[in-house]
Give the backbone structure.
Amino acid sequence: MSSKSFNKRTAATFFLGTAISGSWYTATSALLTGEIIPVVGAIVLAGLTPFGVNALRPGGNGSLDNHDMAQRLRAFDSHAIVNILDTSGVLKQVNDRFTELTGYTRDQLIGQPVSMLYNEQSCEIAAEMRAALKQGKTWQGETPLRCADGRVIQTQCTVMPLFNKNGDWTGSISARTDVTHANELLAERDTAETLYELRDDIWIVDAETHRFSYMNRVAMSRTGWRAEPYSERTLEDLGEKSGSHAILEVCKSLAASGKAMSQFDTEMFGSHFQVTVKLLPIGGKAGRFLIMLNDISDIINEERMKSEFISMVSHELRSPLTSIKGSMGLLLSRAAGELPSKARALLEISHRNADRLVLIINDILDLEKISTGQLEFNLEETDIAELLRETSAANSSLEQRHGVRIQVETTDTPMQVTTDPNRVIQVLTNFLSNAAKFSKPGERITIRAEENDDELRISVSDRGQGIPASEEHKVFQRFADLSNSKRAEKGGTGLGLSVCKAIVENLGGKIGFDSREGFGTTFYFTLPKKNSQVAAEEPASLLREAS
């Protein structure tokens, strides 16, 4: 047998073994769980290939005719991605399949280091491969190839060292099979298995036909379509069954507007859900809706129970606290006779702290009423100018406690508006309390009222430390605690301004502030002169929006 014939037969056997074993590994990896069967099968097939080649030889004389060999080599060449390197890792030859998949031309590849096809994560694989080849060993494994357009394809690779007649290592030949699609199938399968076991309902719906293409286990159980083919059902069918018309309307809205996602709460199947609908375009067209349903019934029930408990405790605390505060007030007014100076000082401290507790409890109760839409308003014709003077007098204790001066700036002309005077006083008292806490002794706090044709603007200004610009977004949040607030030292719960915001907005007005750190702050709110009755007509819905 000639050396040339032997080399052809050896190459044919190598390529055939690589092609068969690579195809087996690709197919079984995508379809079967685990690596044992794909790997063992690939090894067995690669080992049996030489026997198969010998069995196909005519007459069993160990030779294939050149025509038959050429056909087989063409088959290998069209299936496998083949390249040849020298000992320095420089590309010497590539086949058509290689250039077709990577997008490079031969001129761009030949003479270039093979490292141009690898990313940084593949450097360790390349070093491992080279070490095996130096030892005369064949290397097998999965390698990524970077294409001309930046894409990365995954390949199952077999690399065999090449030697000259003297047994010297001259380079290597690599045969690869593209397993990118197989890996994607495996990833999709793993994702589907994960989604199937989630506790949230997962639907995938065609954006045009609204037909279901996927439901996980929880969704099938909830809809009762476990035994029925859900692929024959649509969102319209489900709407008739569960009352989920809101989901259908949101899907139509997303498709029409081109927006990517919407999230909302709705009731269906007898439970309360938070629904997320995401539009997943395919090839520039509206492809599928990914719909996720999170059952929040338990959370809502827990929140309701917590609110009821807080409300009950607050009510129970307020009654005895009111009595304690009243008793201390009588003692301070000398109803039981003159008190020693030390006892009077201690009693004044207790009385002030009782006032603090009452304010905190009132804020908590108001917060709960806001959350449930039960905050009450009693609208009446009110002179704001007179109301400001009344508020200043009611808060005179702030002047004594903090050493500040409260000044009212308004006209003698009545400023009439239909509003809830007690709620307006509540807002102003909160503004004044905050201003006094953060003002230096001797500073002036100004209450001002201004009007135009449509509304009244009421403000409270101080010359305190101001609000840091980076924290202005927190001011009206619940439990807001600014870096310079010193809540532990100055008191407060961080609820007052949140309650004020809800009150003003439900009276039909707006609330805001202007501040400059180190120079002071002005908090203000407006009241409409014509349509403040809106708060009396629809308090519940507006309160829910404010909360």
Observations:
- The two ends are 91 Å apart (CA to CA).
- Residues 297-332 form the longest helix (36 residues).
